[in-house]
Amino acid sequence: MSRFTFGPVPSRRLGFSLGVDIIPAKTCSYDCIYCQIGRTRETIDEPQAYFDPAAVADEVAQAVALAARVDHITFSGSGEPTLNTLLGEMIGAVKARTSVPIAVITNGSLLYRADVRAQLAGADVVLPSFDGATEAVFTAVNRPHRSITLARVIEGFKALRRDFHGQIWLEIMLIHNINDSMEHINIISKYINQFLPDRIQLTTVTRPPWHPSAHELGSLEMEKIASRLGDRCEVVSGFDKRIDTASADWAEVIADVLGRRSLSLEDVVRITGVEPGAARRRLATLVRQGRARKARFRGKEYYLAGENRDNLC
After folding, report:
1. 5-235 carries CATH number 3.40.80.10
2. Helix axes 150-163, 182-195, angle to 10 degrees
3. What is the rounded CA–CA span in Å between residue 104 and residue 309?
4. How many angstroms separate the CA atoms of 227 and 207, rounded?
5. Cα(313)–Cα(311) distance, integer angstroms
6. Coil, strand, or helix at residue 300?
7. Which residues in the chain are classed under CATH 1.10.10.10?
8. Which of helix, strand or coil describes residue 9?
9. Would residue 176 be called left, alpha or beta, if left means φ above 0 and alpha means ψ between -120 and 50 degrees?
C-alpha cells in the first residue's frame, strides 16, 4: 500500500500524472464547494512540517520505475500541498532521483507568503486556481480560512509571476450561476492581465462535489467564456488515453486513488488497463467490502472512498 503516491492517474491537464500526497487528509486553507473528496471541517492557514522528504522521494522514485508511463509527478492529493513547509525539500529530493517534470497543484491561497513561493521554486509547473474575482464570489466558492482575503490571493498571484521561472497554468473552475456571469468573467480577465499566466485552463464540475449548489456548465458556455479570456485560454476536455498494462495490485492501486479523488469506470480502465467488464466486477467487490461506494452525478456513475477508509489512505 502506497503511503504518499497514487496513480499514475489520467489527468485532463497533465497526462498520466503520478500523484504525491504530502498533507494529512483534508488539511486545507479552503472549503471549496466543488471539492470531490468532501468538506474541510477546519480550515488552516499556517504551514507545518509533514512527513520525511527522503521517504517521499524514495516512494516516488520506486513508483516511477514501476509505472508504464508517467508524464508528470504532481504534488496534490487530499489537501493543500503548500501547507507543508518541507515541500521545497521534497521537490529537490525527487528531482535528484528522476527526470520526470514536477507539477504542483495549489489553490493559491498562500502565495502571498515569500516562504511559500520559495518552496515552489524547484517545480517545473505550478497550477494555481482562481475561481472568484470579487470578495463575495471568492467566499461563496472557496470558503477560505478567515485570514485569507481576496486581496492577499491577488497579491500572491502577482508575486508568483515575478518570482517563479517555470510555467504557470491558471485554472478557473466555473460553476453555473455562481461565478460564470460575463460581468464576473470580465473582472477575472482584468486580473489575468496582471497575473500573466502561461496558460489559462477552464474546468467545470465533472465529478460529485460535496455541496449540492455546485453545478456544471455546458460546453457552449465554456467556449464562450474561453473566447472572452483570449488566446492563452483553453477548455480542458476529457482524457482519452489509457495504460496498456494491468497492475498486479489492482485493488490497492484503486484504493490509493479513491482516498484522494473519485473515479469513473472509464478512469479505472485507463489507470489499470483492466477491461470494463472486469473492472466493474472488481469495483463491486470493493463496494461490498466497504472500501468504495457509488454515487451518480449528472447521470454518470462514480466511485468514491468508502466508509472503511483505513484501507484507502
Report:
1. no
2. 40
3. 25
4. 25
5. 6
6. strand
7. 250-311
8. strand
9. beta
Query: Collapsing DSSP states into helix, strand and coil, what is residue 306?
Result: coil
DSSP assignment of 51-94 equals: S-HHHHHHHHHHHHHH-S--SEEEE-SSS-GGGBTTHHHHHHHH
Instruction: Map residue 245 onto helix, strand or coil.
Output: coil
Question: What is the SS3 assignment for 285?
Answer: helix
Q: Has residue 69 got a pLDDT over 70?
A: yes
244-264 pLDDT per residue, tens: 444 446 777 777 777 777 787
- Cβ contact 198:171 at 8 Å: no
Fold type of domain 250-311: Arc Repressor Mutant, subunit A (1.10.10)
Contact between residue 77 and residue 6 where contact means Cβ atoms under 8 Å apart: yes
C-alpha distance from residue 237 to each of 11, 13, 271 (Å)? 10, 9, 18
User: Cβ(307)–Cβ(287) under 8 Å?
Assistant: no
Sequence-distant (≥ 6) Cβ neighbours of residue 52 within 8 angstroms: none
**Interval 138-166: pLDDT, tens:** 999 999 999 999 999 999 999 999 999 99
Global pTM? 0.78
